[in-house]
Amino acid sequence: MRGLSTLFDQSTHLVTFADDSYVSLAADSFDEAKTKVSSLLTSHDNFLKSIGMVTNVSKTEMIFFRKNTKDTPPKSITVNGEEIIPKDSIKVLGLQFDSDLSWKTHYSKLLNKTRVILAKMKFLSKYLDQNSMKKLITSHYFGAIYYGSPVWLNEITTSKSWQLLNVLHYKGIRTVCRDYRRAKSRVQLDEVLKRAKPKQWMKYSNCKMAIKLLQLGQAGPPMSRALQQNLYHNDRTGKSIVMDTSRLRIGRASLKNRLTCMRELQFNWMNISEDTLRIRLKEAFF
Known about the structure:
Elements: E1 12-17, E2 20-25, H1 30-50, E3 77-79, E4 82-84, E5 89-92, E6 95-98, H2 104-124, H3 130-145, H4 149-152, H5 159-177, H6 186-192, H7 198-216, H8 221-228, E7 230-234, E8 240-244, H9 255-258, H10 274-285
Antiparallel strand pairs: 1-2, 3-4, 5-6, 7-8
Helix pairs in contact: 2-3, 2-5, 3-5, 5-6, 7-10
């Protein structure tokens, strides 16, 4: 599969996972995007055929991410005589991506999933003590809620989505307490299961991810390109500043808006160990 990389230019990126491959590319117009996608997927299909593999066009999905949702993308793309129709939402490794990165579909799926999990947890709570329920809720319930959260949970999350996440947060804790009639206040629930609230977790995990990328140079090609368009430096107080020079973005989803939580950090994070970073971030946000 390494030979696929020879088909791409600097505006295109390939991600492979098992027998699946994902291709992303940037364009200034839908006409340019249509031409690029059609040419690229045709070359991709021909390459796979040359090594004895086939492309299942019926399982191939495509989505156009755009800043203005009023813009109309092409109705279809032709690949070796077969049409692929763009979708408004696609699932990638368990995450639902919308064309405007609003994550509305992801939240809808998440709500349905948590309902099923909580129903099972409620049944198990009859047979398990509170400590066992805490472990179960933490691993299976909160693990499902925050799966992939560095991708979809950030500073530009809507107030409605924050409200939903807070409701899901306390529903899980109420299940641990068997407080189905909502007798306990949220303050009392916080004492039962002392874990980060959604916004606290978002700030902690996003800052930790960004700092590790900057410290250790672990950014992959997409993040590297994004970081090259944003300049980081410390001001006189030692706080990090993000200056966004990028042009391509989707809605408000620029790196600058996603990482405004880093402005709250009152320490120099560039040259500290991972253990110390974890402690300092918890002190800052929890």
